[in-house]
Amino acid sequence: MREGSLEAPTRHPLGHETAEFWDEDALFTELERVYDICHGCRRCVSLCGSFPTLFDLVDESSTMEVDGVDKADYWKVVDDCFLCDLCYLTKCPYVPPHEWNIDFPHLMLRAKAIKFKKGDVKTRDKLMTSTDTIGKFASIPVIAQTVNAVNGMKATRKLLDATMGIHPDPILPKYHSDTLQKREGDHRPLATEIKTTATTTGKVALFATCYGNYNEPQLGEDLIKVFEHNQIPVMLIEDTQCCGMPKLELGDLETVTRLKDANIKKMAALVDDGWDIITPVPSCTLMFKQELPLMFPDEADVIKVQRAMFDPFEYLMLRHKDGLMNTDFKNALGKISYHVACHQRVQKIGMKTRDALNLIPDTEVLPIERCSGHDGTYTFKSEHHDTAMKICKPVVNRVRQSGADVYTSDCAMAGHHIEAGLDDGSHPEHPVSLLRRAYDL
Description:
Strand order of the largest sheet: 2-1-3-4
Number of helices: 22
Order of helices and strands: HHHHHHHHHHEHHEHHEHHEHEHHEHEHH
Number of strands: 7
Largest sheet: 4 strands, parallel
Distance between the termini: 58 Å
Helix content: 40-55%
Strand content: 5-15%
């Protein structure tokens, strides 16, 4: 039997449509098998809370092996997994095609799905992952001001901690009544000669995302400015729903399927019309690039959208390869401390954001390839916030030590999590916004 593998990882479909996927006895058999292999390896201990939780359970058991761990405690490991996927991509030597066939994130997803189906889920978690519903309500003009004000009050935050288990310390996202759809819904794509390449059509449809629409609409505005400055027409896709990543992380696969049905048909039609697709949030891009195709590998429209889906900086650097990226920058950015988002790393595209920013004269990009620990909702939960900040601490230390002029992350939420860790009054600036500033747009 081989000790590890040097072959490229491959991914099997999730298999949620099979009866075995939902068999709890079969799940626990597989959890025990995988936990035992993880216990004997321990390479992933620095990634997230799941592995230290597992290893502590083993080390504190009567046998100091997995067979000494109470099966009820298996769920503690599941609850600490936020599906960053980095163990699969960067650490585990036993992923397929290795015969041990370890896919830890998707095993955790299976466990979360069974737990959700049993009804073992908090109302808080259902609410926090309903990003579209909250966004539509909280972006109503008067309500937006009220929600933002209330979320900034210490007394209210303590009340949320006591009643809902939402920790009082993390920076909660702000809501805008002037959403991206309102700002750019009437935007007409740039009238210009379309220049295609072997990998890009040269015109882009923007999937706003819940966060990009309700919480930081400036990201979408900046992205449109930057892309059209590069002679790439951009249209904003209308009437989209959440990509489904928050519900996936909750294990609510039924809602993921419903959201997929709402979005994919519309996006596939745009692909047929010659549009490539981008989103300003790595997790949403990854949902269409990886998770939905692994859930629905036989749906032609899902695969069609997957093949047309790009990270914004991946797209720009593909254009640059053919001499089609505008490199006439007006402003230097100095030293940039750049956090590489986990869900961008999982896309296996390389550091395209770093490469693009390094094209700017008198600009130095210092990458940090560590998880921020934010995970969308993980840091907001009272029971997980301390762990989230512990995971973020090495990133915060690297930013402090860099002496950078600005810090950034493709994941805006990760940027704000780093901001909370720094606690020095500074604020992150998104890479797309940095590029717009460099162009002096």
